[in-house]
Amino acid sequence: MEKNSLRNLTNKKLGENITWLSVIINIFLSILKCILGIFAHSQALIGDGLHSLSDLITDITALISFKISFKPEDENHHYGHYKFSSLGALFISAFLFLFCIALIVTSIKSLFTGGGELPEWPALAAALISIIFKEWLYWKTKKIAHQLKSRVLLANAWHHRADSFSSLFVLLAIIVAMIGGENWLFMDKVVGLFLGAYLAFQSIKLLYHSSEDLLDKAPEHTMINDIREHILPTPGVIGYHQFRARRIGDLFEVDLHLQVNPNISVEEGHIIASHVKENILQQHAEVLDVLVHIEPANPQHLKEKGIYGLDQKSL
Predict the structure, then answer these.
(1) Which end of the chain is more exposed for a tag (fewer CB within 10 A), N or C?
(2) Using one digit for the tens of pLDDT, what is the confidence trace for 20-62?
(3) Are residues 16 and 135 in the same domain?
(4) β-pairing verdict for 251-260 and 237-248
(5) Using CA atoms, how far apart are residues 160 and 137, in angstroms rounded to an integer?
């Protein structure tokens, strides 16, 4: 259990560090794009700079989610605060979806209205710098998100990808305007329309998974089977049923009914249950806690109920 607690603290530090880095980069990019946008006469770049400033909302959400989710239990939250991580992922996904809808609507309107401004070369450099930074943040945050199995970091990673695409639209508009003139300004709107639709699809997937976490959906069958493998091999275990697992934030909770010899003492049964719990926690760092309910291995309790297992050799 101490090993898992130490790992959770390490995960918290990793998540906070990459998010603080995102905050610093977003502040830098917003100032850079707004200043250069003014001097280069690019309204698109100024708008993109303001969008980078608004990204601080999702960064702050991720930081708050991480900070709260690792708080210990209290009198109002007996099971801890881990689900704040899923709640934060839900908020960021919704924010990303709204941004994509706005991008799609803006692209469609621009296609019909036409027009646009011819920016100067400093805007090109600012847009390129923004793409490099945001793509690097996307891959770095995504890598840590998969490493920690963190929904909130994955949602924030996709928001970085949306930002890089947003800057890409500005870059395309500048390049096309410089090469082909005003007659080719519509191309960045077409690209924006398709990329906005793609990102909206990704945000819907994140919203779906975050909602499932908040509704206590069970993990994948492969993970359930991996955890179950450590129950029956434990000495003294005859069978189990009502095995259940659920996600709480970025971790999992497990509970089960364990059948042991009805003739042993309560203390001996407790020792067997402790060994089952220790085996699962040692082999699965993503499992936060295991609740084991001890039952005597008699016909009344040896039944095929829910997810179950039975050691035929012990009967």
Answers:
(1) C
(2) 888 898 888 888 877 877 777 655 566 666 667 667 777 877 7
(3) yes
(4) antiparallel
(5) 7
Domain encompassing residue 233: 221-314
Answer yes or no: is pLDDT of 189 > 80: no
Structure tokens at 179: 């090469």
Residue 231 and residue 138 share a domain: no
Residue 79, classified by CB atoms within 10 Å of its CB into exposed (0-12), middle (13-18) or buried (19+), is exposed
Encoded amino acid at 12, one letter: K
7: pLDDT strictly greater than 70: no
Examine the domain organization and report whether 199 and 70 are in the same domain: yes
Could you tell me if 45 and 31 are in contact, meaning their C-beta atoms sit under 8 angstroms apart?
no
Residue type, 257: H
One-letter-per-residue 3-state SS of 134-149 = HHHHHHHHHHHHHHHC
Between CA 7 and CA 237 the distance in angstroms is: 29
